[in-house]
Amino acid sequence: MIRGARLVHAALLLAGLGAFAALVRHVGAERLVADLSRFGWALVGVVAFELTIDACNTVAWRATLPPGATVGLPLLYWVRQAGVAINQVTPTATVGGEVVKTLLLRPHLRTAVTAASLVAARMSYALGQTILVLLGLSAVLSRTGDAPDLRRAIVVATFAIAGGIMSFVWLQRGGIFARLAGGLPRLGLAERLVEHARTAARALDQQLAAFYRERPGAFVVSVAWHLVGQIVGLFQLSFILAALGTPVPLATCLAIEAFALVLDSAAFLVPGRVGVQEAGRVLVFTTFGLSATTGLAVAVIVRLNQLAVVALGLVTYAILSVRARTPAPDRA
Question: Which of 1, 48, 80, 199 has minimal Cβ neighbours within 10 Å of its Cβ?
Fold first, then answer.
């Protein structure tokens, strides 16, 4: 099974790289390089915007932790950076990064508490994105009048994503993880491992149920901060387009970002969304009357920004891992 998953992962990655190569050939490598050369040091500003977005998302995560948690925002920020980097470079469907966050915070928080906060923060992040998509949906639909099939696809995809998120939140309140753990014996795992997983799942369900029941306001705060991060992302896109010499109104950035988020959500199976993310940006930009070259240039800049943040996250992960393994002075 693992080998098959790796083969699928490799095949999707190769397909994505092929799609990216085809895009570069279609747009023209010389034009793309010219746009990127003109952008130059503005990439530093893009990364600064990204780190600000990460700070907003960290505050949103902090809202899902217990009020008495003794973990400061700086540590949470760097732990989050490490986890996001692991998600980007490993084929673990975002699970690997969450495990890393849990392990790095184990000296400070119980595993069930951290895991529950991560699940709740993931849901609030998804809801924040959905709100942004809904805000931009009217602008997207107004620009796709000549493509009724595309309009229908956008509406269906948006409401399917929103419905899926709300359904999963409802299932969490009813103890979904314990139910999932109940099916582990069918995998032929050792009884000791199955019992350990069931215990952990029950603890996670209890934490989540208590959070949604006792602290609904904290969940709303978390969604709000994630939405703030999404809005900062609109200014980031506006900054990129202005630096490329193609300034557009912020409302257009909202429509572009909303459309791009729907496409990115549909391509979650492709590792790093390589090729698919770039093709999606080209489709979005041409839909809104901008050039394919600009769309691909923005996609490459976004990719370079991601690589810079991933590099920072991997360095952070190395440092935090060493610190986590170093005994405190009173336990040395």
Answer: 1
